[in-house]
Amino acid sequence: MLILVLGWANLSAQTLQPYTIGVESENPMKDVVKETITKLAEHGFDVVGQYMPANDKNRWILVVTHEQLFKAVEVVDGLAGFAATLRVGITLEGGKTIVSYTTPNYWGNAYYGDNFTRVQDHYVKVLTSFEKAMGAMGDYKGVGFGSEKGLEVDKLRKYHYMFGMPYFEDVEELEDFDSYAEAIKTIDKKLEGGVANVKLVYKVNIPHTNLTLYGLALSGENGEAKFLPTIDLTTPKHTAFLPYEMLVNDKEVVMLHGRFRIALSFPDLTMGTFTKIMSTPGDIEDMLEQIVD
After folding, report:
1. Most-buried pick from 124, 133, 198, 249 (CB within 10 A)?
2. Which CATH architecture has domain 15-156?
3. Helix then strand then coil, % of the chain, to nearest 5
4. pTM exceeds 0.90
């Protein structure tokens, strides 16, 4: 019993970082992108979307899913649909091309909360797949970044930036439809017809659920090129922060609150920096609402 208690205490005290450096390369960025896609596919990942965030030629994003991520979502369902994908950032900085990815356990604990214990075996397999894919490209780094001290598991499972700020479950409801099918049909039609300053990066239908996750690139005067340079101040860059997501959860369409999603991605930013993008959560919501109107 004492061993179990000590083991749980060690797990709870573990600190996690939002992002992990997989590999660094001297090769041209376009070659690294191509190789990364190949190695990810060889190790169980499906690249469901990719794009250049904030129109920055030094950044590229791959969005991936994995059979084990789908299996995890099926266990909990509902808002767990936001955890169906992970992101790989490829960034040219300091004369090197850095391949990083969203740390599975960081985002898993934040999105599943206490339910993470029910799906953690799936996440072990996803993490192993990342390590093998990155290792196949060169010297695997496995170095976490994105927070100087990292966040403890207990804090991640009930994360909010500070008192009065939203938690994971405090989503913004964009629209409520009569059925799941109607929601999907409406969104797809809008995106196919074109939506101002919003472009589809990926669409993932999660098997055996009424859940569909959309990843969306945001442009225009209030888009990524406005807020990303303001908050992505440190190195390595947090390229894998994007794209922003919208989830169809049965008949309801929701997005994570900007003051949760952005803070979780940049947990060390000061309130002074967040104040500079005070309008961004509302701007993002306004852009995504166009898709469901």
Report:
1. 133
2. 2-Layer Sandwich (3.30)
3. 45, 25, 30
4. yes
